[in-house]
Amino acid sequence: MVASDRETGDVTVDLLTQTYRDHYSSLLKLAALLLDDLASCEDVVQEAFIRVHSARSRVRDSDKVLAYLRQTVVNLSRSALRRRLIGMRLAPKPMPDMASAEEGAYELLEKDALIHALRGIQRRQREVLVLRYFSDLTEAQVADLLGISIGSVKAYGSRGIEALRVRMEAFR
């Protein structure tokens, strides 16, 4: 890209340096139309000049340097946007709001109290409550599983809930 060097006395002005001085702000504006933050725009334009500098032996026509730079800015902007999209897709999903440690401790205490209270009620009431409410079985399924009538499941269930309520109140 050092194609048309001009000499002014003892000073040689490099075409790429001159292009940088003359067109940096317009290339930055081009990148700003394609990207959303100034830092990314500056990175893209700087990278474009680096790439053009590296490929200066292939750019024979000094009139095409600016066109080559513009195309490089556009391509690098596309790549930056593509990397952002991939990053957003691959980013881990935020964790759901977690309960505080204190809430977790209270829940553990409640669970322990419930298990202790369940152990304190009659065996058949406990079986009905566990199958019905913790295993999500229907009354008919519980009756079939335990070999009792649906009416017995309802009776054991209601008595078990009452006994459980009394025992849980005693823990509080």
Which structural traits does this protein have?
Arc Repressor Mutant, subunit A; two-stranded antiparallel ribbon; 7 helices; 2 strands; 72% helix; RNA_pol_sigma-70_dom
Please tell me about this protein's structure.
The chain is mainly alpha-helical and 172 residues long. The protein has two domains: 85 residues, Rna Polymerase Sigma Factor, Chain: A; 71 residues, Orthogonal Bundle (Arc Repressor Mutant, subunit A), CATH 1.10.10.10. It has seven helices and two strands, in the order ββααααααα. The longest helix is centred in the middle third of the chain and has 26 residues. It comes from Catenulispora acidiphila (strain DSM 44928 / JCM 14897 / NBRC 102108 / NRRL B-24433 / ID139908). Keywords: DNA-binding, Sigma factor, Transcription, Transcription regulation. Belongs to the sigma-70 factor family. ECF subfamily.
- Under CATH, the topology of the largest domain is which? Rna Polymerase Sigma Factor, Chain: A
Give the N-to-C terminal Cα separation.
84 Å
The value of Rg in angstroms is 38 Å
How many H/I helical runs? 7
Order of helices and strands: EEHHHHHHH
Instruction: Output the structural class.
Output: mainly alpha
Number-wise, the strands total: 2
Helix content percent band: over 70%
Largest sheet: 2 strands, antiparallel
CATH architecture of the largest domain: Orthogonal Bundle
Spans with pLDDT under 50 lasting ≥5 residues?
Answer: 1-13
- Count of folded domains: 2
At the first level of CATH, the class of the largest domain is: Mainly Alpha
Family: Belongs to the sigma-70 factor family. ECF subfamily.
Keywords: DNA-binding, Sigma factor, Transcription, Transcription regulation
Organism: Catenulispora acidiphila (strain DSM 44928 / JCM 14897 / NBRC 102108 / NRRL B-24433 / ID139908)
Protein name: RNA polymerase, sigma-24 subunit, ECF subfamily
